[in-house]
Amino acid sequence: MTQxxxxxxxxxxxxxxxxxxxxxxxxMLLVNHEGVIEQILPMGTVLKRIPNPDLQVWDVAGDWxxxxxxxxxxxxxxxxxxxxLTQENAFRLPKISQYLWDVGVDAYLPTxxxxxxxxxxxxxxxxxxxxxxxxxxxxxxxxxxxxPFLNYGKRGAHPAEYLLPLTIEEVxxxxxxxxxxxxxxxxxxxxxxxxxxxxxxxxxxxxVSLGHSQATADQAQxxxxxxxxxxxxxxxxxxxxxxxxxxxxxxxxxxPNVMCGFIADxxxxxxxxxxxxxxxxxxxxxxxxxxxxxxxxxxMYPWDSRHIQVKNGTARLLxxxxxxxxxxxxxxxxNLVKWGICDVEKAITLAxxxxxxxxxxxxxxxxxxxxxxxxHWDDSQxxxxxxxxxxxx
Length: 393
Prior knowledge:
By secondary structure, the protein is α/β, with parallel strands linked by helices.
């Protein structure tokens, strides 16, 4: 996968012969001198414009043009796990944001997995302060809390000692003064016997994602009716699809108001099941679920009070429990095309437009800043590469 190369916004650029996710046929993108997309028009459109000697015309010869990626579930990078943020290591946040920008990510949700309330509060405070003053690199959109309100039997690699009952009182303890920085929370809906928590979180503007759960299809549907709109890493740590009990995932797949995140490393979900998932629903987005060793070589790394072994980009606890990956978001894009799961347009969409839709953010369209990527499919090499075409981090 090509590493990003940053190019400054040029003065008035027309990008022609471009394929754009969500648009039919070849398009031209008109970018003004402020680096904003003014129009996206079909090729052949007759333009009436005042002659401009500074205008540049870039012919991308049928390559794809998109916004950068958005990663809604990423646990750390460059050796730092977000739940382990302290004032002493907070200087690494801008480095991580720049690294993510360099691997094609425009924006992300630092994800805090189950930990102590003290750690939640400290990390939330540091991330909130950094995000409020951030000027470069991939933008922090908020925080994803993956826990601590998870089903013990589906906790996966989450430490059992920090799991909490799902009540409004416990939610308030975890959020503290930082509810406004939390954008997504993953929880097991069957833990709430009152049905009060999801509406409460919804009232705070927090997107509720179901995961690490034993929920039946009926329990999941009740949660969707109460306002949950996402599912965390489809298939993983939830009941499998069954012909007599479709479970949480089955209920999500048939619900047009629910979007499911998924991981495309080939280990969390095998390619055949991913193909079934993409045939079953279009309400999907790609996540990396990357851990702290993202950007580092395979090897043994500390993970809270334990250790993980990273091999070929897959991270497992020493007992073999799958804990995550160290593959970037766009390596997942490349995998989807390489495995024949979907075409290039769909793969790009799953990492760029779809995560934005999950958070009700605008997809590529006029009026947006032209932080654009150019994607090229080499049929002879069966390889998908990308580079930053226009950018102003």
